[in-house]
């Protein structure tokens, strides 16, 4: 999208996220490095607690209180860790937008969805009028296929279904035309049928805008369809990084194999669901 | 919306009727014979009998209750012939001790109680909410700790202790305020203000402490909500994140308890009014209890209940406006 092709869109080097625990510091992410080319897609998979979400929050400096990060994070060659809060604020939502896991709790129940989308737009287009921001909100809602967007723009989050709320979140992320979309478990809180719709929407939106995607999930099937490259995390560390294709055909790390084995299959003869530990990760 | 309002108002009427029945039961059935009390010192059995007859005390209880309720709407006349006394339409009863209808006694004193309540409310909302906000946003700092220590003191120090202490320091020792003395606003606004200042501070201190702690806890909770993280991820400036996304959800519950507290206070601040010698509904209640003037106690109880019940409905309506989730669907 922007500038020289030699710079990756996102480069993370030796990222470590540390929490102050009651019994000393705990590293939830340890020396993680990866890069994403402009328009590229990367899946980060792992179990709960493997540090995937913290990685995504660390990129935009949104870590919860009590967490610290070290390492380098650069966006198109610009070092994000060196930015002031004010400078970082201009990157958030504008060049890098996020979609979170639970769309109900991630939308403020007190404001209409239109107001919340318009707010994201106006945060970065200071000269935009209210009317213009509203029009952008309606357009963004139309782009994510919310029917009757002109009327729905004035509805509150609780008046939408789970899938529609996630569409609103995606519309909110899109309205500023970001270069990078970070989706943190975007389908985990949704029904299986709705999951597929949201994933299709994300693919469609990326094809339109050319935005890069970091997709965080615990679902291997999702990354196999959605991303070119996959990074497998375990206990804060990267255990394997490969193209999606190779990862599934030829998993190198025992943990990755265990993860793949744990995916239930219809033709499985064992009859019992395998957990990762039984699968021989160690 | 209209249906909601009608059903709520029907509820109000029902509750007030129940309160009526309850107070009537407690004061007229369980307490000592009103006729004996009215009769006074030079009492004869014949006199008591006549009073009973005049007041309808020998009637069945249900008849007495219905007479009382109808008096609320239509007024009633006590006694017959020469000694008859009329009690006009919202007749809450008649105080034979002060020879005045209860309604009149209350309306005479209500402005004082309302002044006390409104002034204190403004003060406690301001101090409580700002204090709680500072505590939440500067959590763990010196500001936060001192605000919360003061709030703890406000909750634990009894009203009358603080009132007497304040009076001693401000009036006797420092002489910053003159000795409290009732002066109408129109006569001397400064004096009027000085007269109400201490009651306001005393009442506000206790309430503000509760509000500060509540506000602090609510704001801290709200700041951890996912939608606050979303607001930050959108790139909103910090103060907008707090103002728009944290304050409104955090302060909505404060509105709820404010409505209840304020309505409760309109029924009179017993201790504060008594300590500062303010002739409001609260002091009247305290005096009536001391004299066992039952019609007055009953009238005040009913009035206070009415304030709380109506206040509750107002809170519901305000809440509907503030929180879109409780809005009744119009479609």
Automatic annotation (TrEMBL), chain A:
Subcellular location: Cell membrane
Single GO BP term: peptide transport
Keyword Nucleotidyltransferase: no
UniProt GO cellular component terms: plasma membrane
Keyword entries, A-Z: ATP-binding, Cell membrane, Membrane, Nucleotide-binding, Transport
Family: Belongs to the ABC transporter superfamily.
UniProt xrefs under CDD domains: ABC_NikE_OppD_transporters
Primary localization class, coarse: membrane
Protein's membrane topology: Peripheral membrane protein
Cross-referenced Pfam families: ABC_tran, oligo_HPY
Protein name in UniProt: Peptide/nickel transport system ATP-binding protein
Domain of life: Bacteria
Annotated ranges, domain ABC transporter: 10-260
InterPro entries membership: AAA+_ATPase, ABC_Ni/Peptide_Import, ABC_transporter-like_ATP-bd, ABC_transporter-like_CS, Oligopep_ABC_C, P-loop_NTPase
SMART domains referenced in this protein's UniProt entry, alphabetically: AAA
GO function terms (MF aspect): ATP binding; ATP hydrolysis activity
TrEMBL record, chain B:
Gene3D superfamilies per the UniProt record, alphabetical: MetI-like
SUPFAM superfamilies: MetI-like
PROSITE patterns in UniProt: ABC_TM1
Keyword Hydrolase: no
Keywords: Cell membrane, Membrane, Transmembrane, Transmembrane helix, Transport
Membrane topology term: Multi-pass membrane protein
Main location class: membrane
Localization annotation: Cell membrane
One Pfam family in the UniProt entry: BPD_transp_1_N
Source organism, top-level taxon: Bacteria
Listed GO CC annotations: plasma membrane
Signal peptide region: none
Name the record gives this protein: Peptide/nickel transport system permease protein
Organism: Streptomyces zhaozhouensis
């Amino acid at each position: 999208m922007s500038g020289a092709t030699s710079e990756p869109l996102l480069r993370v080097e030796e990222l470590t996220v540390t929490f102050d625990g009651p019994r000393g510091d705990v590293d939830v992410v340890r020396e993680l490095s990866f890069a994403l080319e402009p328009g590229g897609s990367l899946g980060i998979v792992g179990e709960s607690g493997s540090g995937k979400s913290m990685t995504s929050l660390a990129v935009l400096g949104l870590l919860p209180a009590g967490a610290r990060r070290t390492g380098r994070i650069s966006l198109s060659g610009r070092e994000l860790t060196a930015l002031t809060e004010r400078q970082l604020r201009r990157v958030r939502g504008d060049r890098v937008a996020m979609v979170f896991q639970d769309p109900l709790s991630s939308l403020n129940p007190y404001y209409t969805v239109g107001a919340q989308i318009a707010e994201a737009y106006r945060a970065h287009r200071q000269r935009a009028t209210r009317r213009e921001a509203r029009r952008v909100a309606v357009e963004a809602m139309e782009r994510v296929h919310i029917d009757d967007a002109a009327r729905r723009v004035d509805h509150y989050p609780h008046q939408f279904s789970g899938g529609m709320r996630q569409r609103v979140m995606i519309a909110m992320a899109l309205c500023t035309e970001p270069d990078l979309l970070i989706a943190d478990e975007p389908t985990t809180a949704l029904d299986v049928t709705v999951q597929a719709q949201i994933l299709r929407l994300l693919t469609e939106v990326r094809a339109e805008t050319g935005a890069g995607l970091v997709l965080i999930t615990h679902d291997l099937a999702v990354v196999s369809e959605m991303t070119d490259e996959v990074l497998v995390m375990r206990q804060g560390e990267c255990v394997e990084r490969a193209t999606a294709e190779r990862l599934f055909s030829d998993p190198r790390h025992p943990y990755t194999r265990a993860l793949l084995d744990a995916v239930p299959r219809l033709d499985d003869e064992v009859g019992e669901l395998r957990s990762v530990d039984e699968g021989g990760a160690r | 919306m209209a249906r909601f309002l009608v059903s709520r108002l029907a509820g109000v009427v029902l509750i007030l009727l129940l309160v009526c029945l309850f107070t009537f039961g407690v004061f007229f059935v369980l307490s000592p014979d009103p006729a004996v009390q009215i009769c006074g010192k030079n009492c004869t059995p014949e006199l008591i009998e006549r009073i009973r007859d005049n007041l309808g005390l020998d009637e069945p209880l249900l008849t007495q209750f219905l007479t009382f309720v109808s008096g609320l709407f239509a007024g009633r006349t006590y006694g017959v012939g020469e000694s008859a006394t009329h009690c006009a339409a919202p007749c809450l009863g008649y105080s034979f001790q002060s020879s005045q209808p209860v309604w009149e006694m209350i309306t005479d004193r209500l402005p004082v109680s309302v002044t006390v309540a409104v002034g204190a409310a403004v003060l406690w909302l301001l101090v409580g909410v700002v204090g709680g906000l500072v505590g939440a946003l500067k959590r763990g700092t010196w500001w936060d700790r001192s605000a919360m220590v003061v709030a703890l003191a406000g909750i634990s120090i009894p009203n009358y202790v603080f009132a007497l202490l304040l009076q001693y320091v401000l009036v006797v020792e420092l002489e910053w305020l003159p000795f409290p003395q009732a002066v109408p606003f129109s006569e001397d606004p400064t004096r009027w203000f000085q007269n109400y200042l201490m009651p306001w501070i005393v009442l506000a201190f206790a309430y503000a402490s509760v509000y500060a702690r509540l506000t602090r806890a609510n704001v801290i909770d709200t700041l951890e909500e996912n939608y606050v993280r979303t607001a930050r991820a959108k790139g909103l400036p910090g103060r907008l994140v707090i103002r728009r996304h944290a304050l409104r959800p955090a302060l909505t519950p404060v509105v709820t308890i404010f409505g209840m507290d304020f309505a409760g206070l309109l029924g009179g601040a017993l201790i504060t009014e008594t300590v500062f010698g303010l002739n409001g509904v609260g002091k009247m209640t305290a005096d009536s209890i001391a004299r066992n003037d039952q019609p007055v106690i009953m009238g005040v109880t009913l009035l206070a209940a009415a304030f709380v019940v109506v206040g509750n409905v107002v809170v519901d309506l305000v809440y509907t406006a503030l929180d879109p989730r409780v809005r009744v669907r119009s479609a």
